[in-house]
Amino acid sequence: MTSGDVTAHERAAAERAVRHALESARGVLSVQVTLSVVADPSLPRPALAQAVVDLDGRRVRAQAAAPRIVEAIDLLRERLALRASSLQAR
Questions:
Q1: What local confidence, expressed as pLDDT, does residue 90 receive?
Q2: How far is CA 58 from the centre of its chain?
Q3: How far apart are CA 39 and CA 18, in angstroms?
Q4: pLDDT category, 47, cuts 50, 70, 90?
């Protein structure tokens, strides 16, 4: 899902980032990604990338805000990979 000025290239970058973050995860049942950009120059981090993943019935959520959506997507990839790997290490 997207909100605000999000390009097809940025949507594709988010898909690649989430796939990369979850490449070693087992039991991925569903993934929902939301990209949002608020058109307000006074905000320090108007871009938000969020992901909610169902890993074998356990919900994993990660999000990141940044000045630009590409930066938020990169941060999301890192956070999602960390959360997914720590959950499966248990």
A1: 63
A2: 17
A3: 25
A4: very high
39 token code pair:
């058109």
Average pLDDT of the residues in 53-82: 96
Sign of CA dihedral 51, 88, 30, 9: positive
Residue 6, token pair as written in the block? 């999000």
Q: What are phi and psi for residue 12, nearest 5 degrees?
A: -65, -40
Q: Where are the alpha helices (DSSP H) in 3-88?
A: 8-21, 69-88
**Residue 61 corresponds to which tokens in the numbers above?**
């959520």
Domains assigned to the chain: 2-88 (3.30.160.100)
Contact 31, 51 (CB under 8 A): yes
Cβ neighbour number for residue 38 with a 10 Å cutoff: 15
